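Pasting two entries for a bug report.
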Amino acid sequence: MSCPYHSDNKPSNYRAMEKDIHTDFKDDMSYGDYLNLQQVLNAQNPLSDQHDEMLFIIIHQASELWLKLAGHELYEAIENIKSGNFGHAFKVISRVKQILSQLTQSWGILSTLTPVDYLKFRDALGHSSGFQSYGYRKIEFLLGNKNTELLKVHESNPDVHQELSDILHKPSLYEEALKALKQQGLPIDECVLNRDFSQPYEANQSVLDAWIVVYQNADKYFHLYELAEKLIDIEDSFQQWRFKHMYTVQRIIGNKMGTGGSSGVEFLKKALDISFFPELFELRTHL
């Protein structure tokens, strides 16, 4: 039995084109033009004929875009704290937290890649590895996890190497927060505020004491108290991302060596012991 269709009797799930919707983009900028979608959507070039390699590429490309945005926001947060604009700093730090949560969720999609299917194209990756991620390294440096040795991985790209080197030698988000403590009259050792910022940060008693005062007098130092909690939010989200990354890698390759030459899962586990803001966690023991 046929089902006649009458143009003057549209089905209930039909949505007509509104007359004012623009359709001619010969001389006008379209959505795709604005977002450079032609370049973005043509940037996936699998090196094998395996179906799941497209998943692997897109997950990592999307992650790099989120990392770029997180770096953009952290730059702003640092400038906000330097200028005393804590309200806007809180806004962008909260955004970074949500970006990290989004990144964490993406590992769940990648975990649908089975070990057998990954091995079908893993050799095609050569020595390329997430360890070489410029965006990830930038986030770590901006948050305060400095390590000069890690610049070696980026020597083949002079522009990237220079930007990371610049970030390495400048105060991190946390170090700008410590300057804010000093500006509010809280005693911070000069060796903390005036040091070689390219070196890893080490916990300091004067910093711990200052944060304890802030937490014990939250009404008086509310903007510093709120800043501390925002920083904890970032570390919490970052560590969840690190853990999910490690666990996803373990699920897919077990204890194999990483493509970039690291020990793989064991190397990723070590990152879980690194805190960006050590005093902010230690103070909880002393309250």
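Entry 2 (this is the one that rendered wrong in the viewer):
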Amino acid sequence: MSETENRPRNVDRNLALELVRVTEAAALAASSWVGKGDKNAADGAAVEAMRRAFDSVAIHGTVVIGEGEMDEAPMLYIGEKVGLYARSGTGMLADIAVDPLEGTTLTAKGGPNAMAVVALANRGGFLHAPDCYMDKIAIGPGYPQGIVDLDRSPGDNLAALAKAKGVSIGELTVCALDRDRHKDIIKACRAAGARLMLIPDGDVFGVVACAQPETGVDMYLGWGGAPEGVLAAAALRCTGGQMQGRLIFEEEAQVVRAKEMGIDDPKKKYEMDDLASGDVMFAATGVTTGPMLRGVRLIPGGAITHSIVMRSKSGTVRYVEAHHNFQVKPI
């Protein structure tokens, strides 16, 4: 039997806390730049801290959603090997999706909902999404499959969800990025009578929020980043939510790059299992405070972080509050 065949094939549940340590490291590093107006410095600090934290995680991981191509990013680039066993070539094979700082502008301005995000799956578990837009629709868990559809109008989807929830459309809240490209979606949702939560950035939060009752979000609609769509789908897979997505190409070069990444049908409507499949883990740590996660709070000699970690196999969602002592372990 070969060395590869001897590798563990399943995600170890103990990896959940290891992933939280990774997102905590990135969030703590980025928090030093909250409100200081330098989004590139905040992002760079998060990337470096997250990459360093991966060195202690017991996996042989490959970054499939990352900071860009090798020539665009010095670390956490697509194809980079990470984890404790990355150099030896042993250990559990895993695909890694990362956004070390989701909400760079939010962090620079001190706005809400910035967070560090990681998802992990068995090899082949994530769509290798190119750097383009993805049109998305998402709802939380507990509803029959197919009650909403990307190809239906916002009004029809809202009516279907309201009926399934046993409420009026006026009691539903739709989250969308506050962009000119969404003016028709915004108009249609308001015409149907729904409430809107328009966010300036951070559509991973927007999608994941559908599955967290405390956020008050019932549905996510609109265009956001395709890589972020895969990260968000990983979280919804863990909670039983529903999501569909379709890649949006604005130039031919994006279509060519997508085909190089194995995407044969540029018009395909992706279901949840197309975006994230198998045994998936998702972790996020708040950098700035929002409806789902509290941001990093500085205390004398340390800081407090607030994280969420999920696993699809068990359906478990855990919130983790950690108190960090910088005298023992500096950032």
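Dev reply: Rendering is fixed now. As a check, the viewer should reflect this: Residues 15-31 form the longest helix (17 residues).
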